[in-house]
Structures are given as C-alpha cells and as structure tokens.
Amino acid sequence: MAMRGEFSSRIGFILAAAGSAVGLGNIWGFPTQVASNGGAAFVLVYLLLAFVLAYPVLMAELIIGRANRSNMVDALGKISNNMAGRLTGIWGCVTVSLILAFYAIVGGWMLAYFADAGANLIGAQTASQWLLTFSDTRNILFCAGFMMINSFIVLGGVKAGIEKWSVRLMPTLVIIIIALIVYVSFQPGAVEGWSAYLVPDFSRVLDPDLLISAMGQAFFSMSLGVGTMLVYGSYVSKQENLPAIGASVALVDIGVAIIAGMLIIPAMYVALNNGVEIFAADGALIAGDKLIFTVLPALFDTIGSVGLLVGLAFFALMVIAAVTSSISMLEVPVAYLVESRGLIRKKAVWLMTAIIFACSCIIIFNFDVLFSLVISATTQWSQPLLGLVLCIFAGWVWRRDAILAELKSGNPEVESGWFWKIWPWYVRFVCPVVIAVMFVRSVV
Questions:
Q1: Where are the alpha helices (DSSP H) in 156-225?
Q2: What parts of the sequence cross the membrane (predicted)?
C-alpha cells in the first residue's frame, strides 16, 4: 500500500480543516440568519451551540480518523468490526458526493459572476450578458471549470495539494473580507447595518426556531457528518494535541462566519440606502442566492467604477470559499478509492470528478425538480443522521480505552483534563439526543 499523506504543519491542518468548514453557507447563510434572528443574540446562541454541539462531533471525527489512519469506510469498519461501519462509511461517501454535485453548480455560478466582474472591467458587454443569463450551457461550462480547479488541487495529494493551497487561499479569503469591510463601513447606510448585526434582541434567545436555526448553522458550517473532518483527521500527526487543534478549527470557522456578517449586513444596508430592495415580501432580509446574485450586484452597480473592483474582489472571495470546502468533499471518496480499492490517486480523482460532474449535469437538466430536492436530502436529512451515527460510534461502539490511548499519543496528561472528564459521556448521551430532537423538528 502506498504511503499515506500527512499534513506537514499544525497551521496547514488548521487552515485546511477551517477551509473545509468555511464555505458559502458561512458567507451567505450566517449573516442573514443573524440579522433576521435578533442580531447579536443569535451570534451568542450560535457561539454557545457551536461549542456545545458541533465541537464534540468534530472531535469524534478527528479522533476516529487519526486513530485508524484511514478513509471513512475503513475507519468505521475497523471500529465496528462489522458491515454496519463500512456501510455507514459508504453512505457518507455517497452523501458528500451528492453535496458536491449541487455545490459545484453554485461554485460555477460564483466563477461566472467573477468572470462577469472581469468582463465589466474591460467593457465586454456581450460577454457580460451571456455570463449573467441563467442557461444550461453556462451552468455546465462553469460547473466543469469549478470541478477542474478542485481536481487540480486534490491531484497534488495532502501536502502538495490540499495543504499547499489551503495555506494560500484561507489568508487571502480573510484579507479580502477585511478589505471589503473597511470599504463598506465608510459608505452611507453602513451604521444601520452594524446595529442590525451587533445590537442583541435578548427577547429572542429562547425562541425554539432561533435555537434550531443556530444549531443547524453550527452543525453544517463545520461540515460535520460526511467524513471530511474524519479524513483530514487521518492525515494529522500523532504528536498533535487533538482537543486543542479541534478547538482552533472551530474558532477559525466561527470567526470567519462572524466577520462575513460584518461585511454582508452593513453592505445590505448600504444597498438599501442606495435604493436597492433588501427585504423580502414577509419583511425578512433577503438571504441565500438572491442576496448574492441580486442584492449585492445591484449594490456594486450603484457605487460607480469602484463597484467593478469591489464586485471582482467579492466574487473572488466567494470562489475561494467554495473551493476550500469542495476540495475536502472530493478527498472523501478519493481517499476511499485509493486506500480500499487500490486505485492510484490520479485515476481516483478523475473517476470521482467524472461521476460527480455527471450528477451535476443531471441536476442542471432537471433543475426545477432536483436542485432543492438534493440540497434537502443531503444537508437536512442525511447529514444530521450521519452526525448522529458518528456520535453512536464514538460514544457506544468504540472502546473507551482505545479512544483514550489515541488522545494520549498527542497529550499524555489528557486524562486529568476537562476534555476527558466531559467529552466521552457528552458524545454518548447529550449529542445524540440533541441531534435527534433537532432532526425531528426540522423534518416535521
């Protein structure tokens, strides 16, 4: 069997794992959730739930991955010693591939809008019109382009691909966000946006819908349940202190979500000040794809020639956020094909790219029926259930002494610390119950 890759540095792992967690959801989902759910009150609940719920599951994935030094299918198979583990692993690989199939379409839109910002800079109006028109041809071409970028990075393996690019892309992402925050904050209307984002409405804190939204956001923004963190964990050196490194990943992810809000919400109020409609018919702030593809481009149009550069920077940011998440998703089935099925990495990458791109094309040709269906099936149904099953594996199936031995390899004193006093029973009793309740609430 070929030598497995390993992250060469702690910062390389933290940036790659945080890159996996920082996706389009952090930038287009989190800010509008905050603004429409009681401002800073939502941020506080989110912070709490990220550490109360998402961090323990993140740790379960990292520990399982590093202990078994293998992909999701083999790792869960080794823990359970039966087919149930392997089947769960395969279910994870299928789910993550389907998530990537719709994510690549959205990533393609980001690329198209980035290209459009470039076309506007050089005054290519015809190209711009084609780029902004929703068509099967455009969607397929840009989805293919987006998948090619991912394949190129994942072909390099862990050190020369994923780590090398994460260490470049993540700081770039943060620099672009901060530069845009500074620019937007000096525009008329920004102050109202800051107050909508930062002033808490504490009457909302115990609202069950707010709690469910915050929990869902915390869970999905850390890309849990589908094996990305498990596979990345399997590439971490045995010398690393896992609870500390996991906390760093959670903090970077939460930090990026919060600074994304400092950009998006003031930008929306600047747009309002410039005559752009930012509220939907029910009075809530416009969120999701409408926010990214309608409200913000309209804002860039209202600020003249600087708007072209701001638009270019913004869509560069969105492409980077999409890529850092997608490479981790592609790595999950690739790792399985390389280690379990004995394919060479190059073959595995191209095979998975072809399969996922074929799924994307099927979604594009049946867009009205399949797009939102695939998103619901994967992120609202499959992902929380996988998170639940991972908690059961970590809490009930896997032997406690094996978990402790794994943690001790990077931190000999772990047994006397807080983490070991709380985490094992927590992931056993609290996480499964909370995830199950959240799942039933969201489905019913």
A1: 157, 164-185, 190-198, 208-221
A2: 39-64, 84-106, 139-158, 170-190, 210-232, 244-272, 306-328, 348-374, 381-398, 418-440
